[in-house]
Amino acid sequence: MSSQARLSKSKGIFDPVWLIMAGMEPLNMRAFKVILVSLTVAGSLGAGIFLIASQRTSDRIQRKAAQAEAEVKDVAMHGGDVSAILAMLAQVRPALDSGDARRAEGLLDRALNLLAQDRSKPHGADVSSLPVFQSQEKECRLYVDPQLVVIAGYDGSAMEPFISPDGQFLFFNNENDPNVNTNLHFARRTGTNHFQYLGEIPGVNSPSLDAVPSMDAAGNFYFTTLREYDRTMNSIYAGHFDGREVRDVHPVAGNISPTLPLNVNMDASISPDGQTLYISRAVIVPGASAPKKSELMVARIDGGAFAVVPDSAEIMKNINTGPLAYAPAISANGLELYFTRASQSEPGATGIGAKVRIVVARRSSLSDPFGEPQVLGTLKGFVEAPSLSLDGSELFFHKKVGDKYLIYRAVRSSN
């Protein structure tokens, strides 16, 4: 996507903060790009370090921490891969907390040596190719006749659509751009392809990025937000939509957030029954034009909390095959999974420049893995982010038209 998530504010040199910026072609809001803006390898040193080390050692560690912060930011800004260095630096604070100043300083020395080696390499923008599907793509005509959706009273870009289970509300976010506040909006249905704009959704938005809505039949509302990612790595939140606003916004309960640096849950789709969450998780390389990896995962609720199921990889074995996969949408019966996949090319109306397509993977029963994905061949151009109606008769998605993103609606084929 050619949109950009706004930068959250750095909390100072002793806060472990890396800020997320989405701003790459060709993956819209989904293709999160991490730019290292502030990183502290020693964490909140405070008085604690003086209890475990001499003043001289303390000063030396703080100098090395500041140097590592500055150098890792510079390498990332110039397209270098700092993921291994970040993993090393993440061990510094635990070492200090345990009283092992020698180990902490050793980690800093190793990190600085790696950074010195990296500086000797030529850098520039990462021009590595997008992880795409390389083989001949199979197509199907499950959905046909895509038509523009008209949102009366709204004239901006509309992305990441979600049609409510009752078919009466269309949720979406405006374009991600550093000069605007990316928030969630909604509209009420007035006709087949017509909706009346109702404004931003009360209760759900923050100064950070808020986007990618999804909702189950009980009104439990899910979305992506970066409001606390810098501290918790949580990016999937939930609340309850009552027809007017979203209440009780909170991180999704359970154990679904990544723990490794440069990993992020980009978006999620809840099943209509509220029991299963389909998540796209990306691995980011700072400076790269797209995620290094993006795969789909399955999490189920148990006792009010979600956890990734043990057989998630098996369920997704025909989907997570290398090409970027993101923006999932599940059918009500759980047998059809729609998502966006990075493609070698898109020969549609907008030419060969587009590199993403909407695909579907099907299965015969809930105990089976999803099968080989097929492209929805009638959805041409730069298209992403499918959303199904509860009965499966409609499919909404966004498409880039000129310099704007617009929402379209296709119908289920009778063939």
UniProtKB/TrEMBL annotation:
UniProt cross-references to Gene3D superfamilies, sorted A to Z: TolB, C-terminal domain
Keyword set, alphabetical order: Membrane, Transmembrane, Transmembrane helix
Transmembrane segments: 31-53
Pfam families: PD40
Official protein name in the record: WD40-like Beta Propeller Repeat
